[in-house]
Amino acid sequence: MPEPETAPMPPKDDRLDAVIQALRLMIETQNTHSQMLARLIELATPSEESPLEESLAEIAGALRDQTTALLQIGTTLDRLGTEVEAGVMRGLATALESGDDGSQSEAGGETC
């Protein structure tokens, strides 16, 4: 049985050139990755405080204060109906008591 023919090996110089080319490409890729990583690290590093950060902190504080005030207004409005009702009932009770005293004196009741 005849042996299958194998492709002849390229000359040693060609193989060495291919390895050198591959290593150059690998080094280029590593350099590119190093540059990208350096940029990412630069962007991830906290910067010095800027007026923007201070302004945003002030705005956030003002929003918290406003939220607290709005919640208090909501609580007051929730209680307002009950308080008005109680006030009207007290006023009505006072008016009825005054009316009872006046009707008793008109009807010949106790006089002072």
**Percent range of helical residues:** over 70%
Give a quick account of the main beta sheet: strands, pairing sense, barrel closure: none
Average pLDDT = 84
Shape field: rod-shaped
Structural class: mainly alpha
Radius of gyration: 46 Å
Number of E-state strands: 0
Number of separate helices? 2
**Which residue ranges are poorly predicted, with pLDDT under 50 across at least 5 consecutive positions?**
none
- The helix/strand order is HH
Distance between the termini: 145 Å
Q: Beta-strand percentage?
A: under 5%
Structural notes for this entry:
The chain has a domain at 80-106. The protein contains two helices and no strands. The protein has helices at residues 12-44, 51-106. The mean pLDDT is 84.
Brief overview:
Helix content is 79%, strand content 0%. The chain is mainly alpha-helical and 112 residues long.
Key traits:
112 residues; mainly alpha; 2 helices; 79% helix; rod-shaped
Write the layout of secondary structure elements.
Elements: H1 12-44, H2 51-106
